[in-house]
């Protein structure tokens, strides 16, 4: 009795479901499908205007191109000037300026921090204290000597500079360590980075603030682009010299006492999107236009309060060319 009742109920529900679907969405239902309604569309008759002076104008946004409608000319949109330089390699170098030495790594400080920490954890030296927000590690090198590692953001975007100094264990005064010792210890860090930076994918959240403390920024003052380096004159001069050499930009003359480079460059090539800078010693650069010994641009460095501003003055060219030159220098800075 119960089984028969259950069968009847299921049959009733099935019939009700089928008829309900047809009743709701079928052709005769409450909500019939409308996907084929456009076949029933008809062109409406023209409007009867109350006056013959009134004219309905049709606005065709996509007119066919023919002899009466010329093809729109292609607009030459200038390429946006690079604001910050960036490095895509994993280059690691030991750099030196006088007695100042540091490790240069083309990766963010938040990535360099755990790699540096891993180096000391793998060595026999003990890590005394770490401050990732300040980018400082204190290392016990021996019973009487401690090392201080300072990690900073470099000049180039996504770059790191690592400095090393030594302190006596019983005082906070710097130790007059031989440059050879500092060079030897930094060379070990370079070797560790060279073997680890390309495969190391970790980053330190605690050291993220170091990524924002960049040594270089660019701004516009009185329609002139200026690069500001958070460096003294000596390091800023060295960085500009290195950038000019990297870009084969030959200096016709320099005046270090007044912070001036005099340079020239070739006219814009039709085959290249940007300027081809001169290298007077490069015989293979046949596409360059030699402009003689007279300088066309003056690169000026001015230092104040441990910061150095760099800007370019055009002597014979246009201001647009000066902007292109300082953008190229910013691209090459490291």
Domain tally: 2
> Can you say what the CATH homologous superfamily of the largest domain is?
Kinase associated domain 1, KA1
What would you say the CATH architecture of the largest domain is?
A: 2-Layer Sandwich
> What is the CATH topology of the largest domain?
TATA-Binding Protein
Tally the helices: what do you get? Answer: 5
Give me the strand/helix succession: HEEHEEEEHEEHEEEEH
Strand order of the largest sheet: 1-2-6-5-4-3
**Class by alpha and beta content:** alpha+beta
TL;DR of this structure?
This protein has 334 residues and is α+β, with helices and mostly antiparallel strands.
Topology diagram in text:
Elements: H1 2-25, E1 92-97, E2 100-105, H2 109-122, E3 126-131, E4 136-140, E5 145-153, E6 160-168, H3 179-196, E7 216-221, E8 224-229, H4 233-246, E9 251-255, E10 260-263, E11 297-304, E12 307-314, H5 319-332
Antiparallel strand pairs: 1-2, 2-6, 3-4, 4-5, 5-6, 7-8, 8-12, 9-10, 10-11, 11-12
Helix pairs in contact: 4-5
Molecular structure report:
It is a single chain. It is built from five helices and twelve strands. Mean pLDDT is 76; it is low at 79-87 and 267-294. The protein is flat. A hairpin with a 2-residue loop joins strand 7 (216-221) and strand 8 (224-229). The strands form two sheets. It has a six-stranded antiparallel β-sheet, with helices on both faces. The chain has a six-stranded antiparallel β-sheet with strand order 7-8-12-11-10-9. The chain has helices at 2-25, 109-122, 179-196, 233-246, 319-332, and strands at residues 92-97, 100-105, 126-131, 136-140, 145-153, 160-168, 216-221, 224-229, 251-255, 260-263, 297-304, 307-314. The chain has two domains: 92-210, Kinase associated domain 1, KA1 (TATA-Binding Protein); 215-332, TATA-Binding Protein (2-Layer Sandwich), CATH 3.30.310.
């Amino acid at each position: 009795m119960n089984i028969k009742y259950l069968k009847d109920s299921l049959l009733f529900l099935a019939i009700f479901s089928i008829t309900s679907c047809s009743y709701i969405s079928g052709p005769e239902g409450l909500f019939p499908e409308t996907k084929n309604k456009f076949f029933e569309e008809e062109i409406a008759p023209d409007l009867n205007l109350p006056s013959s002076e009134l004219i309905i104008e049709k606005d065709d946004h996509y007119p066919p191109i023919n002899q009466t409608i010329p093809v729109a000319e292609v607009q030459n949109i200038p390429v946006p000037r690079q604001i910050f330089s960036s490095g895509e390699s994993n280059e690691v170098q030991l750099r030196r300026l006088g007695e100042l030495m540091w490790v240069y790594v083309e990766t963010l400080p938040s990535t360099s921090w755990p790699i540096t920490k891993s180096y000391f954890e793998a060595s026999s030296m003990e890590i005394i204290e770490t401050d990732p927000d300040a980018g400082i590690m204190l290392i016990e090198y021996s019973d009487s000597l401690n090392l201080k590692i300072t990690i900073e953001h470099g000049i180039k975007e996504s770059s790191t500079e690592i400095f090393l100094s030594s302190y006596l264990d019983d005082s906070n005064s710097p130790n007059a360590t031989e440059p050879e010792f500092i060079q030897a210890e930094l060379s070990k860090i370079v070797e560790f980075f060279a073997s680890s930076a390309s495969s190391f994918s970790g980053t330190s959240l605690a050291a993220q603030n170091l990524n924002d403390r960049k040594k270089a920024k660019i701004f516009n003052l009185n329609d002139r682009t200026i690069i500001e380096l958070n460096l003294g004159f000596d390091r800023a001069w060295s960085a500009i010299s290195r950038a000019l050499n990297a870009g084969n930009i030959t200096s016709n003359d320099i005046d270090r006492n007044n912070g001036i480079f005099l340079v020239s460059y070739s006219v814009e090539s039709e085959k290249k999107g940007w300027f081809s800078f001169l290298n007077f010693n490069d015989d293979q650069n046949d596409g360059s236009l030699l402009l003689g010994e007279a300088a066309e641009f003056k690169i000026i460095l001015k230092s104040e309060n441990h910061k150095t501003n760099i800007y370019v003055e055009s002597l014979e060219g246009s201001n647009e060319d000066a902007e292109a030159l300082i953008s190229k220098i910013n691209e090459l800075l490291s």
